[in-house]
Every structure is written in structure tokens, then in C-alpha cells.
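Design review, sub-item: ligand-bound model
Attendees: FS, YL, KQ
YL presented the inputs for the heme C complex:
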Amino acid sequence: MNTNTVLAALSLVAVTITMSFAGTEPRTGVQDSVHDMTKYGTLAGGDPEAQQERVCSYCHTPHHAIVDGSDYLPLWSHTLTKTTFTPYKSGTLDAKIDAASMMEGPSKLCMSCHDGTIAVDTHYSFTGTKMLNQDDSLFGTAGVGVNGGLNNDHPIGFVYDGTSNPNGIATGPAAGDPDVSAHIAGKDPYVRNGTATYIGTTLKIEDRLYLSATQGGKGIMTCSTCHDVHNKINQDESGATNYLLLASNKGSSLCLSCHIK
Ligand code: HEC
Ligand code: HEC
Ligand code: HEC
Ligand code: HEC
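KQ shared the predicted structure:
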């Protein structure tokens, strides 16, 4: 099977799944990015994907993918880690996070490498050896959610909705200042609603929410609401590390896309 056939198979999946990622900026590619696992693959062990530079295959496969009920597993080919992580907690948080559904959507896929328990070069039936947070000579990035704790990380897994859901947050305007007199307990007028765009782009926040089956089909915030996993060229000034973000880290544009501060 050639690369075009694989791409066609994968894009077919993209239109049939319940994601609302349609409005994303054209992706800048995985090859030679931090997510190009052929760089870390076990060449010495004869890993065929690394030898052929099949970048997609560390995360996806056109056949024999992992299947697990109604979970979002886009032709997933990478062993999954645990499913439950400790949520972020705070006295001022309006968002309701349920640990049982928090990892729905892309977030659990990220954790299948980033919590440092599954080797990044593991794929299909091949067991790799290079672990994030463990192999410091290879990786500079610290693990995220190591030992199951996402309690010191930006909250994810909650409904990003300011209009209909009683647990809704994000009632702020898409642009300009909020009408604070309209504050409703449990809703946050200082967070922009999903029609706002990431600063410096035409991409809407709502296009990077995952439509959660267990949360009434509403869009929840995930790792992919801030990051683009298929990204090589960041939104930042050229040459700067920008952590695959959907808006520039410069001037905290990413944060200010949502938070009216
Ligand atoms: C490091 C892991 C990783 C690699 C490598 C990777 N993907 Fe993905 N892919 C993901 C994750 C995670 C998602 C879930 C949606 C998201 O986070 O954007 C996804 C979703 C998708 C989707 C469905 C949703 C969408 O965004 O359209 C398609 C199609 C896709 N990937 C194609 C590819 C192709 C083609 C390649 C190789 C050029 C590739 N991916 C390489 C992790 C990866
Ligand atoms: C197949 C394993 C794998 C998966 C799945 C994966 N990553 Fe990564 N990610 C890596 C590796 C390896 C690096 C490079 C680490 C380093 O060099 O220190 C990395 C680096 C990153 C970085 C740092 C970029 C930089 O510029 O330093 C971010 C941000 C990131 N990943 C986010 C994500 C998100 C979000 C997801 C899910 C949507 C995800 N990753 C899924 C393996 C993975
Ligand atoms: C609210 C936005 C946001 C969300 C949600 C988010 N990140 Fe990040 N992430 C960032 C920013 C911004 C950085 C850049 C580092 C910095 O500015 O300190 C970053 C950095 C990273 C890095 C680079 C290494 C590090 O630890 O700093 C990794 C890996 C990463 N994120 C993975 C993830 C994963 C996995 C998830 C989901 C569990 C996630 N991120 C959710 C905004 C976010
Ligand atoms: C896609 C929109 C979005 C982005 C981007 C984003 N946030 Fe958030 N953030 C939220 C939402 C929504 C909440 C939950 C607000 C609530 O419940 O009141 C939140 C929660 C928080 C909280 C916890 C508030 C509390 O009461 O404990 C902090 C702090 C925070 N964000 C800071 C940041 C920073 C710093 C950045 C940039 C690195 C960032 N956020 C990027 C949407 C976003």
C-alpha cells in the first residue's frame, strides 16, 4: 500500500468521526517534527517503520487498529496507557470535571506517550524502548501526567459551553470586554465563548473541541484545544520553539485567545 492510499484511508475516517476539527489551519506536517518517531525508532532492532520513515504508523494504521467501544481511537496503533488521571482542582474553577470522562477524545491518545509509561516507538505489534520522562539523553521534554496526575496541569475534559449547559463556562464575548453585570453563578464571563478565534489565526476555539458522547454531544476541552499534534511549523516567530501551539506563545497570545485578562 502506498502513502497516498494510507492518506486516503485516514481522511475517510476524518469525515466519519464525531470530531469538530473541520476548521483547522492547514497542517504543517509530521515529518521531521518532534512527532516524527522515526527519529527515535529502534533502527538497530530492525524496526521496519523507522527504516521506511513511515511517520504516521507510530500512531495510526490503516488496518487492524485498536478498537475499544465508542472511544475515539482514530485508526490508533499505539498501545494506550491508563484511562483515569487526577483532574485539576481549584476553589475558583467553574468548569465541572469528572475524572471518568476527562480523558475522552484526543487527550488519552497523547498520554499514551506523554505520561512516560509506553515507549514512543511502540506501534502496532512492535514494542519500543524509548520512554519520555525516562530516557533523558534522548528527550528534553518532561512527562505530562506522570504517575496519573493532571492536577498540576491546565484543566481539560470539561464542557466548553456558555449558552445551554448548566455546567457551562465561557460566556465571554468573542471580542471586546465582557458584560460583567450579566454574570451568572457557575459561568465565567472572563472566558471567551467558542466562536472566538485563536489570536493571529482564523481558527475558532469551537473547531478544536471534542464532541463528547458521554457529555451530551457537547464540545469538551482537550490537549488538542491548545496543541496541534500534526505540526512542524509553529505559529510563532520563525525559529522559536512554540510547543505545537494553536496560537503564539509570544505575548501569551494563546492564553489571551480565551482568557479576558
Ligand atoms: C504522534 C502521534 C501521531 C502521528 C505520528 C500522526 N498522528 Fe494523526 N492523530 C494523532 C492524534 C492524537 C489524533 C487525534 C486528533 C488530534 O489530536 O488532532 C490524530 C488524528 C488524525 C486524523 C483524524 C482527525 C483529523 O485531525 O483529521 C487523521 C486523518 C490523521 N490523524 C492522519 C495522520 C496522518 C496521515 C499522519 C502521518 C502523516 C499522522 N496522522 C500522524 C496522532 C498522530
Ligand atoms: C507516539 C508518541 C506520542 C504521542 C501519541 C504524542 N506525542 Fe507529543 N511528543 C512525543 C515525543 C517523542 C516528543 C519529543 C520529546 C522531546 O524531544 O523531548 C513530543 C513532544 C511534544 C511536545 C513538545 C513540542 C516542543 O516543541 O518541544 C508537545 C507540546 C506535545 N508533544 C504534545 C502532544 C499532544 C498534545 C499529543 C496528543 C494530541 C501528543 N503530543 C501525542 C511523542 C508523542
Ligand atoms: C490551555 C492550553 C494547554 C492545554 C489544554 C495543554 N497544554 Fe501542553 N502546553 C501548553 C503551553 C502554552 C505549553 C508551552 C510551555 C509553557 O509555556 O510553559 C505546553 C507545553 C507542553 C509540552 C512541552 C513540555 C512541557 O512539559 O512543558 C508537552 C509535552 C505538552 N504541553 C503536552 C500536553 C498534553 C499531553 C496535554 C493534555 C493532557 C496538554 N499539553 C494540554 C498549553 C496547553
Ligand atoms: C481554549 C481556551 C483556553 C486557553 C487557550 C487557555 N485557557 Fe485557561 N482555562 C480555560 C477555561 C474554559 C478554563 C476554566 C475556567 C473556569 O472554570 O472558570 C480555564 C482555566 C484556567 C485556569 C484555572 C482557573 C481557576 O479558577 O483555577 C488558569 C489559571 C488558566 N486557565 C490559565 C491559562 C493560561 C496561563 C493559559 C495559557 C498558557 C490558558 N489558560 C489557556 C480556557 C482556556
